[in-house]
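Teaching soon. Invent one.


***
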Amino acid sequence: MQYLVKNKRLELKYVPGKGAWTYHLEIPGTKEIKGKWGEIKVSGSVDGHTIEKRNLAPIKGADKIISINDSIRKAINKKGGDFVSVTLYLDDPKECIDKNKIIEVFKDADVFNKFKRLPKGEQTEVMDQILSAESEKKQIQLIVKYIDSLG
């Protein structure tokens, strides 16, 4: 388990007009964590109230924030400007798709030998296209496409 903060006192920020982010916590030391919206999930507690699998919002060039909704604020009896004790850890990330995973899938689909017979430049192009896809879903779609074309 990788803790982001452990029993850290943080200010419950109030920024009117920010929708779900009107009340939020800025989590120190999270600026360098990579991930798009929905990819960085955390669990832990805020003033002893358990939270599970909540999204950290990526803020370009700044620490990530977590929304503190009405039900959490009522449970901990806090409002904007109050300080809360926060413990958060990163949930286990999904297994990432890398070159080795793609090769493993090609072997399982019995198309790896055909893939290896492609010219090196074409092999590189296939791998680059899959690895640079904008989402895991798109990566899987591309893998299936190449399995079909090689099969």
